[in-house]
Amino acid sequence: MAEHVIPHFVNDLGVEKIFIGVKEFQCMGARPPFDHPHVFLDMGADTQIVCPYCSTLYVFDPKLGPEDTDPPTCLFEADKEPA
Q1: Residue 77 and residue 59: Cα distance in Å, rounded?
Q2: Largest interatomic CA distance in the chain
Q3: Interatomic CA distance for residues 22 and 30, integer angstroms
Q4: What does the alpha-carbon distance between residue 34 and residue 70 come to, in Å, rounded to a whole number?
Q5: Architecture, CATH, for domain 8-71
Q6: Does residue 60 contact residue 49 with C-beta atoms inside 8 Å?
Q7: Do the Cβ atoms of 26 and 40 come closer than 8 Å?
Q8: For residue 1, what pLDDT is reported?
Q9: Among 19, 38, 39, 64, who pairs with 70 as Cys (CB 3.0-4.6 Å)?
Q10: Domain ranges of the chain
Q11: What is the pLDDT of residue 58?
């Protein structure tokens, strides 16, 4: 069983890069129904990684919390999505 929840991030805004407060996450491109396959990404010792599907550059910012993004609104929360 996972020790923590892996956040899912989206790039509905179409920005070149998103600053995040975690190094392990899933990118899903845009919100459904326009999402791409949800891919698990792990920066490891690096501080940035590019999604192989949507080419979004994710940059780790240690000042951000695990659910914070810059620009804001890039965290996907399934329970808060419209039905």
Answers
A1: 20
A2: 38
A3: 19
A4: 21
A5: Sandwich (2.60)
A6: no
A7: yes
A8: 43
A9: 19
A10: 8-71
A11: 98
State the Cα angle at 12 between 60 and 53, rounded to 5°.
70
Which pair of structure tokens corresponds to residue 42? Answer: 């792990």
Position 17: which residue type? Answer: K
Per-residue pLDDT tens listing for the chain (83 residues): 456 789 999 999 999 999 999 999 999 999 999 999 999 999 999 999 999 999 999 999 999 999 999 999 999 987 665 44
